[in-house]
Design the sequence.
């Protein structure tokens, strides 16, 4: 149970960092399209909700191998989503 709590905390921290980075781009960098920044911030919040929800409900609780595979896939999907959002934030700052 503790590892699940740590995973959810990690998801929240990363989402907060991405959100604050997008907000910084929107507020302080000249020439950034605020509508695109709003879309990115909404995507970050949706990502946080989705991955915390997925962390709460593993498949096949009685089978340890399946649970381990589930969380490995969850971490891989999370990293993919983080990279995609970070790329979008990077594109916001380049005009």
Sequence:
């Amino acid at each position: 149970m503790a590892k699940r709590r740590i995973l959810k905390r990690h998801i929240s921290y990363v989402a907060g960092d991405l959100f604050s980075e997008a907000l910084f781009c929107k507020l302080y960098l000249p020439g950034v399209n605020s509508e695109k920044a709003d879309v990115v911030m909404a995507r970050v919040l949706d990502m946080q909700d989705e991955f915390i929800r997925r962390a709460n409900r593993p498949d096949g609780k009685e089978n340890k191998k399946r649970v381990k595979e589930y969380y490995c896939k969850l971490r891989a999907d999370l990293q993919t989503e983080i990279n995609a959002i970070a790329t979008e934030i990077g594109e916001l700052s380049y005009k």
Observations:
- Helices lie at 2-28, 34-56, 64-93.
- The chain has a mean pLDDT of 91.
- The CA atoms of residues 5 and 46 lie 19 Å apart.
- The radius of gyration is 16 Å.
